From TrEMBL:
The keyword Manganese does not apply. InterPro entries: 2-oxogl_dehyd_N (IPR032106), 2oxoglutarate_DH_E1 (IPR011603), DH_E1 (IPR001017), KGD_C_sf (IPR042179), ODO-1/KGD_C (IPR031717), THDP-binding (IPR029061), Transketolase-like_Pyr-bd (IPR005475). This is oxoglutarate dehydrogenase (succinyl-transferring). One of its GO terms (cellular component) is cytosol. E1 component of the 2-oxoglutarate dehydrogenase (OGDH) complex which catalyzes the decarboxylation of 2-oxoglutarate, the first step in the conversion of 2-oxoglutarate to succinyl-CoA and CO(2).
Amino acid sequence: MRQKPSLSVSSMVPSNRKSIGIENLALLEEYYQRWKKDPTSVSADWNNFFEGFEFGYESLKNGQLEKKVERRAPTDALKKQRAVYELIHAYRTLGHYIANLDPLGFNQYEYDELKLERFGLNQKDLESYFDSGDLAGGGRRTLREILEILKKSYCSTLTVEFMHMDSFVQRKWITERIEGKSFHAGFSKEHKKQILYDLLKAELFEAFLHTRYVGQKRFSLEGSCTLIPMMDALIEACPAHGIERLVVGMAHRGRLNFVANVLQQDYKVIFDEFSENYIPEGVLGDGDVRYHLGFEAALKTKAGAIVTVGLTPNPSHLEAVNPVVEGKARAWERRLKDTEHRKKVLPLLIHGDASFMGQGVVQETLNLSRLEGYTTGGTLHIIVNNQIGFTTVPQDGRSTHHCTAVALMLGIPIFHVNSDDPLAAVFAVLLALEYRQVFGQDVVVDLVGYRKYGHNEGDEPSFTQPLLYKAIAQHPNISDIFLDQLIKSGEMTREEANEYRKIFVAELNQKMEESKEWIKQENPPTLRPRLSCPRIFDPVKTAVPLEEFLYVGNALVKEPPDFNLNPKIRKILEERKAMVEGKQPILLPFAETMAFGTLLYEGIPVRLSGQDSRRGTFSQRHAVLYDTKVSKKYVPLANIHPNQAIFCIYNSPLSEYAVLGFDYGYSLDYPEALIIWEAQYGDFANGAQVIIDLYLVSSESKWGVTSNIVLLLPHGYEGQGPEHSSARVERFLQACAEDNIVVANCTTPANYFHILRRQVLRGFSKPLILFTHKSLLRNPQCASTIPEFVQGSFEEVLADPQVNQPSSKVILCTGKVYYDLIDYRSRLGRMDIPIVRIEQLYPLHEKKLKEIVLRYQPKSLVWCQEEPKNMGAWSYMFPKLNDIFSLPVLYAGREASASTATGSMAYHRLEQQKLLSDAFGR
């Protein structure tokens, strides 16, 4: 007779769960044996599991279930113990809802889910002993002690949301540092004094500005001045964590205070900026208001280490700076050769509470945090939580309890801290910094304070929040609260604090006097000449030697070894090989590839990101090849030469705003590379308009910041409807002034090749808006030969290659419509009418245009475009053509329209036929 098997939990693991692993089965067995001896020695979850396991079966025989028995009812003690485990879990999960976070005391909550009765416990159980699981090191404690630990850990002036985190290791890391710990313990007397001095500086600086510059906007930090000692402690801690550089983005609130008291800008300079006659030195453009400007500082810590801090300039569009900071941080990681571990550079984003929840770019940027082409090793987010946005209270501004809810998507810890408790706040930011360095992920610190004045100092907040601002007026300063604590503990005297106040205010007064003297000595302000770039039309050598062209071309068309290539891709490589061999002309897609390849061969890095950019929206690029049988890929542009520069190409998430912001930021701090953002279709630039308007086209004028980023925007009317026809040429041209950007639409592969190379070889930076093509990608007429790549350079204006004799009129155009015009001209047999292409719309090379047009001795000009009359380049070109030529300028194109294009293919063709007829028929 076969022996009855002994009951073993590991033997009960179903055969379809073999992924558990041997080591975990052993651990399971160990827990089971512990539970049999003492059910309270394991957590509530394990207790439930083992009860079901043991009570569900009476015996096992031959591996089969023999007989089921009724489940035994757990004892009252077991029920209570289970309830305690559930209570601990509930406080870890929900304790943040009833934490003491509001300095004003308004937002105090009760939460039924945390009442003892909810768990079957009552006041009589408070002195009973229970196992506390892994709470604060574990052990048997009274329920009263357990509750005290839980409330101190999760319901005091500092709390944390962390039970949503996927990682058990990370949750354990949090509990070990929070539970049973005193957030105030670990601070030396000297550090506490430094925190007080930081608070005094912050508050006195704001009060000084408030009384000396009455009514002027400064976006005061008062009510959240704890931010300053937090930042001071953060920077002091950076060297110990291996951090060499902080890249900072923040909106207006507290920016002047941050620059003055953390980044140590001379107070005199700040006072200068408040003068009505102030014109900043060295700014050649229009400049910007003082609370938008960037700043660069090299800060020396008390230990003698240097931490560089770059505060990124930003517009009024609040969170728009977020992706720009991430791009800059990633560029610095490459610059510091830290692309593997990403520990040397810390992106720091300081948000407002209303904007963190209200601005969609916050979510877009958070989503970038773990993507291959955009990760920066984690960002430290600090929210200056005023509990109000302009005049909008939280219940009108968000549908969630906390303003941080959007960050839950990342499964990261979110620390909430009362700004009236500066020790807890400093503790939180240092813990957050440590978490970022250990786990390489984002982390959020929500500093809950208030706003002492209105949104700006000219507002009257009591109009809309009378009760709130009555409470604020009666609330003591944070420094006074903290000073009272230090006096009570004997670590500080009021006399010491008053002496510090006296010295600091004296310094501010001295700097103000220096500022007044400086302003007096300055001449009255005068208008400056507009920005210009005298070198903008200088020719740039972009041709490559034939030997280099052929070497790079052959490397790019080579079939990778040991690779199962898709037959259609093999055909594309064969076609491109014929182009390298001169057997076929070169088309646009391969011209782009050759531009990238030759730059890489010459040691210039290339980064391209966009939606589906690896393959290309129109299946034209194929920069990454995929094996058809095994999971591997091959990147021809990364395999040209062993000593080539790095090539990066990424399929971006379905985001335009954040991704363009990221690539723009990257281009600012890595200008030696060719940085490209590609829209899936040109109209997708609509989603990135904030970055285009507030950064890309205006940053040089506002902040003296230049970028060489390239925007590839597919544009052209092929009957694809209103959404995928136009990249809104008119919007970019409307934003053109002071040689701020370059706007181009290349109609030959060679010109496309040369303008891409020119972007990084010309010696200065200007953003390039490049309208690219769809139907022309495979149009055999849109082709160039090898001599055009190894000779010449980019041509801003192209004469008609087929017409040389004088003509009564000249048709001017830009982009793909040129090929429609030459086809129509050929059918008409009107080879006497020249068609001149404007390849670079801005800056317009007027001298070259005039020289080419006047060759034909025309009596009139026709501007032909596919776009409606109120769009495209017509409104931009018409006054310019009138200024350059003393000739009638006629229009041939679609009628003005509210929509960019028709959705009907039949109607599109009728419109296209009419504009071509109009161009030749007048």
